[in-house]
Design brief:
about 210 residues; four-stranded antiparallel β-sheet; about 35% helix
C-alpha cells in the first residue's frame, strides 16, 4: 500500500511539472547567527531563542535539497508530516518548533525522507560542524568583512575548501554560514546559485547576549 501511494504521488507531481521528492543534487546546510536574527526579527517577536539566558549562537536554519542550478521546494511528499513532538525536539538547535515545521514543509518534503529521517539527518549535519569557539567569545559588536567569518570556519574544520562555504549578510549584518554537503553529508563544492558571499566591506557582527 505504501509503495502504491508513493507511485501515485510521483505520477501526479510528474504530470503537474512540480518538484519531486528525492530528486536533487546536494544539500545546503544553513546556519544562522542568532544575534543577527534577533536584532532584525526575533526581538520584536519576543522569541525564546533571543532570551539572553539561551546564549544562542549559530542555530540551524535548515538542511536544503539543492540542484546544481536552482532548488526544489514545497514538494508533494507521500510521507506523513512531522508530529508536534518531532518539531519540539528540534527546537534546541533550530530555535523554535515553528521553524522546524516550516523547514519540513518547504525543504524537508523534497528530501525523499520521512519527517523523522529528515530531522535526524539535519541534526547529524549540524552536529558534525565545528562552529568556531572564538566567535562566542566576543564581548562587543564588531564590524568585519565576511571573509573573517569564513576563515574562522575553515580553520575550525580542516578539510573544508573555500568553494564549499559561503557567508551571507542581511541588512549589513553577518547573517548565515551555508555549507554544501553531499547526500552522505561530505562537504562538496557549492553551485553558482549558492555561492553568493556577503559583499559588504564591513558587516556588523553582534556578540552572543
Amino acid at each position: 500500500m505504501r509503495a502504491l501511494i508513493a507511485l501515485l504521488f510521483s505520477t501526479v507531481t510528474a504530470l503537474a511539472g512540480e518538484d519531486r521528492p528525492g530528486e536533487f543534487d546536494y544539500y545546503v546546510l544553513a546556519m544562522s547567527w542568532s544575534p543577527t536574527w534577533c536584532a532584525i526579527e526575533g526581538d520584536a517577536r519576543d522569541a525564546a531563542q533571543c532570551d539572553p539566558a539561551a546564549e544562542s549562537g549559530w542555530v540551524l536554519h535548515g538542511l536544503w535539497p539543492q540542484h546544481h542550478r536552482g532548488w526544489p521546494e514545497h514538494c508533494q511528499s507521500p510521507e506523513q508530516p512531522p508530529t508536534r513532538t518531532m518539531t519540539n525536539d528540534m527546537a534546541d538547535i533550530m530555535g523554535s518548533s515553528g521553524l522546524a515545521w516550516y523547514q519540513w514543509k518547504k525543504h524537508g518534503a523534497c528530501s525523499g525522507l520521512s519527517a523523522s529521517g529528515y530531522y535526524a539527518l539535519a541534526r547529524k549535519a549540524f552536529d558534525q560542524v565545528n562552529r568556531p569557539e572564538v566567535l562566542r567569545k566576543l564581548t562587543r559588536p564588531v564590524k568585519l568583512p565576511a571573509s573573517v567569518i569564513e576563515e574562522a570556519f575553515l580553520k575550525a574544520n580542516p578539510g573544508w575548501e573555500r568553494d564549499m562555504l559561503t557567508i551571507t549578510c542581511r541588512q549589513d549584518r553577518i547573517h548565515e554560514a551555508r555549507l554544501c554537503l553531499s547526500r552522505s553529508l561530505d562537504p562538496v563544492p557549492c553551485g553558482r546559485d549558492v555561492v553568493r558571499d556577503c559583499r559588504a566591506k564591513d558587516a556588523l557582527f553582534d556578540p552572543i547576549r
